[in-house]
Design a protein that fits this description.
Blueprint lengths: L2 E6 L7 H16 L3 E6 L5 H12 L5 H8 L1 H16 L4 E4 L6 E4 L6 E5 L2 H8 L3 E5 L2 E3 L5 E3 L5 H11 L4 E6 L20 E3 H9 L7 H9 L4 E5 L7 E4 L12 E4 L3 E10 L4 H11 L7 E3 L7 E9 L3 H10 L7 E14 L9 H11 L6 E5 L2 E7 L3 H11 L9
Parallel strand pairs: 1-2, 1-9, 2-6, 3-6, 9-11, 10-12
Antiparallel strand pairs: 4-5, 7-8, 11-12, 13-17, 14-16, 14-17, 15-16, 17-19, 18-19
Helix pairs in contact: 1-4, 6-8, 7-8, 11-12
Bound molecules: adenosine-5'-diphosphate, aspartic acid and magnesium ion.
Adenosine-5'-diphosphate binds next to loops.
């Protein structure tokens, strides 16, 4: 069986007209003799609206009910697509996670797919049906509905491609592919023709929400090639694949930026072993992800300052936990909500010396102050004031010659 998994994002199914276009894309694949498995997100805005309602009803909305609530948008869009295909004479129906089933483990709100039972869908495909699977959801061992984190329909598609040994997995979205940077931040962003899993993973986890980062990790582990393309225009998109398949001489592949970070500085903590661990232990126990960390060199060997960043949504909880922490003493707690992380990503930097210098020099020429730095083999991130994000992205885009070509 020649199977393809097609995933449609929220904007692609955002209106009735767009759903008609989605049905036409599906039919193109059917005509090419593919067995098609479709994954759909909720219509754009629906998930956000449900989350907003839950927040209005409770500051600490029950997580199992949150999942039951926010997964409901996908049911609607799947039924609409199936209904349209039925109207055009095709056998199709919606499939919710429990009907397949798609099994998950991990916490509510951020579960991970650990198995997909293939029998029911295989039978349906063999009967000539086109299953429209609700993205973003699964069920756990207690048969409760779970969700896979924001943007989680990407993970649904990739895991279906894995379990059904699909020839292709196509992610249809509202941009022409993965671009050198978010086109909403910088208009001159260019499409990247081919990108490695590792670079895509860094870009996604550093703020490029075109792909959900854990889904890229799933694709990498299972060696599934992904095509990212527009559902609005017929044009080649981006291929996400293994590094071995890529030959180019770019230093930097892409630039990412974040929107919702917060920086916390503890001034005047004791400079002795174990202090950092005792600050971060309660945060990790409460699922708060600490991102960048920097500790100043202590001038007198007794006291120092510790700075770290977290997601803005975790700020209140973090502040409470730090204040409740009896083990640590500090003189002052400084909070900055107006920070963003800007990162340059590329496997090319492994073999090219001087990239860090070029990045810092370019930013300093524009008077952009760097607050915190973190690096890995294929990325350099800097924390800067939020108001300079656009300027920093455009500066770095030019500095590393991403402006110049049509496509990369
Ligand atoms: P979907 O609903 O199709 O899943 P998303 O909104 O999750 O779509 O992702 C697409 C959006 O990601 C684009 O509209 C774009 O603004 C944003 N984006 C951020 N960084 C990038 C990037 N490097 N390349 C392409 N799009 C990006
Ligand atoms: N509808 C979900 C969200 O908005 C999942 C997805 O779009 O992939 O996060
Ligand atoms: Mg998405």
């Amino acid at each position: 069986m020649k199977i393809v998994v097609l995933k449609f994002g929220g904007t692609s199914v955002g209106t009735v007209e767009r759903i008609k276009r989605v049905a036409a894309i599906i039919i193109r694949f059917i005509n090419k003799k593919y067995k098609v498995i479709v994954v759909s997100s909720a219509m754009s805005g629906v998930t956000n609206d449900l989350i907003k309602k839950s927040k209005e009803l409770s500051t600490d909305f029950n997580s199992a009910e949150y999942d039951a609530l926010v997964s409901s948008g996908e049911q609607m869009s799947c039924a609409l697509i199936a209904g349209r295909l039925n109207h055009l004479g095709y056998k199709s129906r919606s499939w919710l996670a429990w009907q397949i089933p798609i099994l998950t483990d991990g916490n509510h709100r951020s579960a991970r797919i650990n198995a997909i039972k293939t029998n029911n869908l295989k039978k349906y495909l063999n009967e000539g049906g086109v299953p429209i699977v609700s993205g973003f959801q699964g069920i756990n061992s207690n048969k409760r509905i779970t969700t896979l984190g924001r943007g989680g329909s990407d993970a649904s598609a990739i895991m279906l491609a894995k379990y059904f040994k699909a020839k292709k997995c196509v992610i249809y979205t509202d941009v022409v592919g993965v671009m050198t940077t978010d086109p909403r931040v910088y208009k001159k962003a260019k499409k990247i023709k081919i990108i490695s899993y590792e670079e895509m993973l860094e870009m996604a986890s550093l703020g490029s929400k075109v792909m959900q980062s854990s889904s890229v990790q799933d694709a990498r582990l299972n060696r599934i090639d992904i095509d990212v393309k527009s559902s609005f225009i017929k044009k080649d998109g981006t291929l996400i694949t293994k590094r071995k398949n890529i030959t180019n001489n770019k230093i930097i592949t892409g630039i990412s930026s974040t929107k919702n970070d917060a920086k916390i500085t503890l001034v005047g903590i004791k400079d002795k072993p174990g202090i950092a661990a005792s600050i971060f232990k309660p945060l990790s126990e409460n699922n708060i992800n600490v991102d960048m960390v920097v500790q100043n060199i202590s001038a007198d060997g007794k006291e120092t300052d510790l700075t770290f960043t977290i997601k803005l949504e975790d700020l209140n909880k973090t502040q409470k936990l730090v204040k409740l922490n009896k083990i640590i003493k500090y003189k002052n707690l400084i909070i900055d909500k107006n920070v963003s992380k800007v990162s340059i990503i590329g496997v090319g930097m492994i073999t090219t010396p001087g990239v860090t210098f070029r990045m810092f020099q370019a930013l300093s020429k524009k008077n952009i102050n760097i607050l915190v730095i973190s690096t890995s083999e294929i990325k350099i991130s800097v924390l800067i004031s939020k108001k300079y994000v656009k300027k920093a992205v455009s500066t770095l885009h030019k500095e590393f010659n991403l402006d110049s070509q049509d496509e990369h």
